[in-house]
Amino acid sequence: MQTNKKVQCKECLKKFHKKEIYTIQQFQYKKEPKYKWILVYFKKLKIDEWDSFCEECIMSYSKKVDDVWNKQKSQVI
Question: Mind listing the pLDDT tens digit for each residue in 11-22?
Fold first, then answer.
C-alpha cells in the first residue's frame, strides 16, 4: 500500500495511509470529559474536528486532554 501524499498529521506532519487517519472526533466516545468540553479545548489549540493525526499524535493529545481535564476537575473540587 502506498502512502497518500495528501494525508498528513497536523502535528508531526508525517504522511500516512488514509485508513490510518485519526481525528479529535474519536474523543466523543470518552466518558469524561464531555465532547463539548473537548471541542472547546481543541479550538484553543487551533485544532478542528476534521484535522488529521497519526496514531502516535492522537494518543499524545488523548493524554493531554486527560491531564488538563483532571487538573481542572481537581481545582473545582
Answer: 998 887 777 889
Can you read off the three cell numbers belonging to residue 29?
466516545
Based on the structure, what is the number of domains in the chain?
1
* Number of Cβ within a 10 Å radius of residue 9: 20
Domain that holds residue 39: 18-76
Q: How many CB atoms lie within 10 A of CB 36?
A: 9
Place of cell 493531554: 64
* Residue 77 vs residues 65, 69, 71, 72, 74: alpha-carbon distances, Å: 18, 12, 10, 9, 5
In single-letter form, the type of residue at position 54 comes to: C
